[in-house]
């Protein structure tokens, strides 16, 4: 049996039904929101002022740093245990971890850069490949993300199913920093995208589509050694084309993209990772993976419409037509000397043999040297004594030319 709670009228007890308390909380939240918006506006003004005064120097420094922090694909190729087919599995794991900790977009790009640079300089065993990726994520989060978002070693250990000890994370983190010479400030693709879109009206769909295309490129070997600035320009141009936006003018920095890189990116759009597609199918990322899938479907239908028709296959029917005797091939034969007889049958040609020539004088066959073939007669049931009457007669045997 439930007990009824007696209301207390004491002055020192707060009630959830106190309208004055709820009103004061709403006022505090509104004031805090106004202060945050004011801080963001001041920061935006300072950023615009810094870009106006130091934009060229910042861009030049970023382009210099990207050349110093590029990984070497040829060095990764000589790894003995890790292979390129293992890369998508590790990247799927890092993308899920990055989304779980709600880290900044540039943190993911910096993580992949640290991973590739470490694999370019150190021999990595297959059993330590995931450990290197986790420590690269830890270093990247400490470098550029908020302190409250940085994952702890305990959380990373739990994500790896306790496969590694705590000391192994600490040692590998130090080893990664030593390998890259403590040079962590790599300008990522996201940094160059912000540089290209900063002076334009904010279009989140274009930005998210460009980031989606850039993250698709991380899975493929051919884009590992491409500069982030080239990748940012190419992905931005491709994103604008997919979304039907106008391209950058010729004098802008974003218009100086490489056509080869742009074409290579367009060839890899049809097979994104399932983890990556699910990540960019959410509303806060403008559902650009669904938009890209619809675009590729429309392109495929257009290609099918303009493709030449395929000739129909011949179907086999049960009723077969009789072959025409006029169109059938005929075996050539030697012409007969006699083409017509009034009575009897045609005399078939006989090829003479050597015995017929040698036995000609003994058998009294004359000078021809071979026996004369018998002329077949008509088949009659009763003997007849009347003579045949023919319009033509056989030539003498001596006039028949040898048939060889």
TrEMBL record:
Protein name per Swiss-Prot or TrEMBL: Cyclin N-terminal domain-containing protein
Domain Cyclin-like: 92-178, 191-271
Domain of life from the UniProt record: Eukaryota
Taxonomic lineage: Eukaryota, Fungi, Dikarya, Ascomycota, Pezizomycotina
Family membership: Belongs to the cyclin family.
SUPFAM superfamilies: Cyclin-like
A GO term, aspect molecular function: cyclin-dependent protein serine/threonine kinase regulator activity
Pfam families hit by this protein: Cyclin_C, Cyclin_N
UniProt keyword annotation of Transmembrane present: no
Species, as recorded: Cladonia borealis
Listed GO biological process terms: cell cycle G1/S phase transition; cell division; regulation of cell cycle
Alphabetical keyword list: Cell cycle, Cell division, Cyclin
Domain Cyclin C-terminal: 187-294
């Amino acid at each position: 049996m439930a007990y009824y709670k007696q209301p207390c009228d004491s002055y020192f007890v707060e009630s959830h039904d106190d309208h004055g308390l709820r009103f004061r909380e709403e006022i505090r939240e509104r004031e805090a929101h106004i202060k945050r918006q004011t801080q963001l506006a001041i920061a935006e003004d300072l950023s615009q002022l810094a870009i106006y005064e130091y934009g060229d120097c910042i861009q030049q420094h970023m382009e210099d740093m990207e050349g110093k922090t590029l990984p070497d694909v040829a060095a990764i190729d000589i790894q003995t245990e890790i292979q390129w087919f293992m890369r998508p599995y590790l990247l799927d794991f890092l993308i899920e971890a990055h989304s779980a900790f709600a880290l900044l977009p540039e943190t993911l790009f910096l993580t992949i850069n640290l991973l590739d640079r470490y694999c370019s300089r150190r021999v990595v065993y297959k059993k330590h490949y995931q450990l290197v990726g986790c420590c690269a994520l830890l270093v990247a989060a400490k470098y550029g993300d908020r302190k409250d978002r940085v994952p702890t070693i305990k959380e990373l250990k739990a994500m790896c199913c306790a496969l590694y000890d705590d000391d192994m994370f600490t040692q590998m983190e130090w080893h990664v920093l030593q390998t890259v010479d403590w040079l962590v400030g790599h300008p990522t693709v996201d940094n160059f995208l912000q540089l290209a879109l900063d002076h334009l009206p904010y279009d989140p769909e274009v930005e998210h589509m460009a980031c989606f295309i850039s993250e698709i490129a991380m899975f493929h070997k051919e884009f590992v050694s491409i500069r982030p600035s080239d990748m940012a320009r190419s992905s931005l141009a491709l994103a604008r084309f997919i979304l039907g936006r106008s391209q950058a003018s010729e004098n802008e920095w974003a218009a100086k993209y490489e056509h080869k890189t742009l074409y290579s990116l367009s060839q890899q759009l049809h097979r994104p990772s399932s983890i990556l597609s699910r990540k960019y199918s959410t509303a806060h990322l403008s559902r650009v993976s669904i938009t890209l899938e619809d675009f590729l479907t429309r392109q495929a239908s257009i290609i099918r419409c303009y493709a030449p028709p395929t000739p129909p296959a011949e179907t086999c029917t049960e009723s077969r037509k009789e072959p025409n005797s006029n169109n059938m091939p005929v075996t050539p034969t030697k012409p007969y000397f006699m083409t017509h007889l009034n009575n009897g049958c045609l005399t078939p040609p006989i090829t003479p043999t050597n015995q017929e020539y040698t036995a000609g004088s003994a058998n009294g066959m004359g000078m021809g040297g071979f026996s004369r073939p018998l002329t077949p007669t008509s088949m009659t049931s009763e003997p007849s004594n009347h003579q045949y009457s023919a319009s033509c007669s056989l030539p003498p045997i001596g006039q028949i030319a040898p048939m060889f």
